[in-house]
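Hi everyone, sorry if this is the wrong subforum. Our group has a chain we'd like a structural model of before ordering constructs, and none of us has done structure prediction before. Sequence below.
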Amino acid sequence: MGVKNADLIDLIAVTLNDLPKQEMEIGWDHPDYEACRIYQSERTVIDGGTQIERKVMFDPTGNAKYRRCYDTDSPKVGDGIKTIKIGWTQVGTNYSWDIFEIMQNKNSAKGFIDLMKTRRMDGLWDLANLLEERLWKTPTNATDDLYPNGIPYYLNMFNSAGTINTTSGFVGATIVYQDATTGTTCSGIDAATEAKWRNYAAVYTAVDSSMLKAFRLAFMRTKFKAPIFVNDPSNKKAAAKRIYGSDDTIADLMDFADKKDDNHKGKDVLSNLTVDEGGLCYVNRLPVVYNDQLDGADYTPLYCVDFSKFIPVVHDGYWMKESEPMVDKGQHTAFTVFLDGAHNNLCINRRQAGFVMHKVS
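Answer:
Right subforum, don't worry. Here is the predicted structure as tokens:
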């Protein structure tokens, strides 16, 4: 008597939903999957809509003034509201089994579980790689709606003239896309004409005391608070703030931190620097995280990202959505599970989303 596809589908689905813990070594591609962390821990879920929109106000109308008795007023009403607009990007992966593979393993519980687990791990690993790599890239060009807006899309090293910044300040205005084209319009707002839609960029030449001062200035200048008598309309979201850099830059930071340490003890061997899972070292109490995709990057960038303003967003009900096992007439002996989602990265305030430190050559 033949085995029905419906029975095999149920067998696959039940096994996937109840995979026991098993030991397995994986040759991971990246030292730290930061994209997976932020989409798990820092994400915001948004329901519906053909695109993601948020409002931002850059300047008041100018009605406040000092006055004398009997002065006249000229009330004005301004239209200072701008709309941030980004589109949804869709991503997915899949993993498959052939009926013959299932039949070879279905009578062995351990063999069948291993088969299910390894195929699923393969698909999820590939998705993790894709999410991580796109987090550190801009889209292909200004009209690209396939790829999400990565961190370099919002934190720019180039000024409104399209040249590398040589001074520190709110001067990051030009996006460099993957095809080497450039543009100043970010999420529907042109940074060339709107000065308050530019990120902070700081210049450094080496990891030393001057760089530390530049970092502290950037940290202070990108931290804004609402006046005490104004009810802040923004969402006070608690989120991580982290620093990302290349291997050489972070190694230099660790060496610099160790040189400044004067609390060595008898059992110290070469270094008293504390290293943990949060960060390889800390600057202004912010963890420094190594990202291999910044190795060898032009201008040696060091990114500081505030995830309360740089927000990974996912579509409600359509993120890591795993389908039931299914067959296709073109591959009638293969069962495939698809995993899909819609997401993007939203920046609601480029002046507070963090900053980028870089060299000029």
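For your construct planning: Residues 266-270 have pLDDT under 50 and may be disordered. The domain at 5-19+32-47+80-225+238-358 is CATH 3.90.1690 (phage-related protein like fold).
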